[in-house]
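Async update (no meeting this week)

Hi team, since we skipped the sync, here's where things stand on the single-chain job. The sequence we agreed to prioritize is pasted below, unchanged from the tracker. I ran it this morning and attached the output directly underneath so nobody has to dig for it. Comments welcome in thread, and please keep replies under the output.
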Amino acid sequence: MSFYNDVYQQYAEFDFAGFLGSRTPADVREVLAKEHLQPADYLTLLAPAAAGFLEEMAQKAHTLTLKNFGRVIFLFTPLYLSDFCVNRCAYCSFNAGNKFARTKLTLEQVEEEARAIAATGMRDILILTGESRQHNPVAYIKDCVGILKKHFASVCIEVYPLDEEEYRELVAAGVDGLTMFQEVYDPRVYARYHRGPKSNYHYRLDAPERSCRAGMRTVGVGALLGLAGWRREAFFTGLHAAYLQRKFWDVQVSISLPRLRPSIGGFQPEHPVDDKSFVQILLAHRLFLPRAGITISTRESPAFRDNILPLGVTKMSAGSSTRVGGYAHPDGAAPQFEISDPRSVMEIQQLLLKKGYQPVFEDWQQWDSLEKQLCS
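Output:
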């Protein structure tokens, strides 16, 4: 039992081009009149025919988002612990073949970074590392979590895939969420871009499910937009999120829409996604999965993030640095990729208030942390 066997295989040989090309405006109108969407409806909203209905889709997406989430946006920021990596992913600065001075934070430096981020008011943090079990073992991640829990209500991870027992160890240490981008859902395209341990497509694909079984409170999935045709990739991303929602009803499932950004090595995407297509993906996700969170990161420009805010977004990164140690020392290590929205946490907070949204820094607190506060 897995997403690949239970769901992906049903569509592995599906004629996507034929289906997408056959959809008509009447088909799109019929889908928009439905209250609950099936996978074929969802794929219809990703078809070229739906591009002429973005305004109608946006109105419905906005209504569904208000109904399920209200006018709140959750804020978080990433913290890079290490850029040591053994993989050779074509699109990533951390590619082991790229020559630059590698960095790994000491526990004292993790404390320094935590203080710098916490001073902005941020209470939700996402920690990242390159994939090197030698340099970034689970024990190191656990030690870092122990420090970060003193400063943040929620600590999530976006690290290399782990075994279920290793996820269980991190949950016990205080980690409550996982983000795991599959990068590419098409196995043949995935194999072209990845060398090293990350080339194990199925181990990565099953990682969110292992983390749910281990007790993660939240899990996020996504495809790295630009590596393969976006309609097929968006479709499988949504099906993956829906599968996790059905199987783990008590886990908060979300989707991210990371779009490729410039990185060391100068990788150029074969399938660039323009803004209009990005919006169509976002809207189709929201209409298919009304209760799923949707995260938009600082990969997107300030003006674009501002404009798509009402279309289904529920979570945003702010004040981000993609450098190891980049908060206490902004000009230090090389970034994993260039961000597009450099605004501070305060600037994002002011933007949300101006647009009538409530910025939320903390929607979750583990019992042990809450107990300490109540008893102090």
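Quick observations from my side:
Strands lie at 72-82, 124-129, 154-158, 175-183, 218-223, 252-256, 293-296, 315-317, 358-360.
The chain is about 40% helix and 15% strand.
Reply here if anything looks off.
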